[in-house]
Design brief:
Helix content: 25-40%
Number of helices: 11
Bound molecules: zinc ion
Order of helices and strands: EEEHEEHEEHHEHEHEHEHEHEHEHE
Number of strands: 15
CATH architecture of the largest domain: Alpha-Beta Complex
Shape: globular
Strand content: 15-25%
């Protein structure tokens, strides 16, 4: 009898996911069949659930299994795969993390070594669930990692909860802070203390930031930011207006404004506010806004006159996933990583997990199939 695995099938906007069973695929040469251990609900998944991002409009055929932030165990190795992307021996039963997007390898971005910017990354991430190999997303018993893809063994001292956000949130943050060239002694403002903002706080400290200032309006998140190394925080309930907050950043940066400001919020207005917080010659990092057609108005002369620049970042290049794992292993005793994931749900409760996450009842939920 063919072995079967469960998957949470997404059929489109506004429809609850349905648990269905599909045959567990045999991996092709170079591919890996992975048993999912944890699959997180990331901010971008919530955008899909809420309808800010309509996958059908983005050219994604449905139905699919979605979800991308995860950790798994090697269940079957395709022919020819005996090591991970760092050259470490790989065997059935090893815990692994991997990239969930598939750069083409032949466009201008890929050829100059920046495959995070490959236009193909946004397409065909999730294959049709009815077609082989069925398991193209995280919310399922299995995940099928396509041939010859970035995969790293998870160090023994890094727990599942710590490693699950590595292949999305953490790697993207490390890559983003490198791209915006945050350097030793600089000031940085982090807008939004969700999962990304919390990681950014710790990573900025590790990169030698002189002062890390975190903005949010929820006590629990601000407390977490402090535990992850924030030097100062700006509570939006206290500093209610944009002017209050911009003024506060100036006060905290000796009147100059911040060298770097990074957006992990996901509301376009945060960008307008954040650019005002950047000091002359500083840089703005935009990561939070991923929902298309949500706009804001900025005054471009402010960029010109003050020599400010804006850098947009999505995803990351492969080596950053290894850097993320190494960081977790190295810094495991310095930050309370286990506090980032707040609630876990079984696969059958996935719709409830999304509803709870959407209502803000949980900070970062994880599905344990
Ligand atoms: Zn994500
Ligand atoms: Zn490409």
């Amino acid at each position: 009898m063919v072995e079967k695995g469960r998957a949470a099938v997404y059929e489109g906007l506004g429809k609850p996911m349905k648990i269905k069973e599909y045959p567990v695929p045999e991996p092709e040469p170079g591919a890996i069949l992975i048993k999912v251990r944890r699959a997180n609900i990331c901010g971008s998944d919530l955008h899909i659930w809420r309808g800010d991002v309509d996958l059908a409009n983005l050219g994604q055929p449905l139905p699919i299994v979605f979800g991308h932030e995860m950790i798994g165990t090697v269940a079957k190795l395709g022919e020819g795969i005996s090591t991970d992307s760092a050259g470490q021996p790989l065997a059935v039963g090893d815990r692994v993390v991997y990239r969930y997007f598939f750069p083409c390898g032949r466009c201008r971005a890929c050829l100059r070594g920046d495959d995070a910017a490959c236009p193909m990354n946004s397409f065909g991430v999730y294959g049709l669930v009815e077609e082989y190999p069925h398991f193209g997303g995280a919310y399922a018993d299995y995940y099928y990692l396509r041939p010859h893809h970035t995969v790293y063994k998870v160090p023994d001292d890094v727990t599942d909860d710590m490693a699950a956000p590595a292949n999305c949130a953490l790697s993207e943050v490390i890559y983003g802070l490198d791209k915006v060239k945050l350097s030793f002694g600089e000031t940085i403002v982090i807008q939004g203390a969700g999962g990304l903002g919390i990681y950014a706080t710790a990573v900025a400290k590790e990169m030698g930031a002189g002062k890390v200032i975190v903005i949010d309006g929820i006590t629990q998140r601000l407390e977490l930011a402090k535990a992850f190394g924030a030097d100062e925080w700006i509570d939006m309930r206290e500093f209610k207006t944009v002017e209050d907050r911009v003024m506060r950043v100036r006060e905290l940066t000796g009147g100059w404004g911040s060298d770097v400001v990074a957006d992990f919020v996901g509301f376009p207005q945060a960008m307008v506010e954040g650019i005002d917080m950047v000091g002359n010659g500083g840089r703005y990092l935009e990561i939070g806004n991923i929902a298309p057609l949500k706009t804001c108005e900025i005054d471009p002369s402010g960029l010109v006159i003050n020599n400010k620049s804006i850098i947009g970042v999505m995803l990351y290049t492969p080596a950053y996933l290894k850097k993320a794992l190494d960081f977790l292993s190295r810094a495991k005793n310095s930050y309370p990583f286990e506090k980032i994931l707040s609630h876990s749900y079984p696969l059958e409760k996935i719709n409830k997990a999304f509803d709870d996450a959407l209502k803000g009842k949980v900070s970062r939920a994880t599905i344990v199939p």
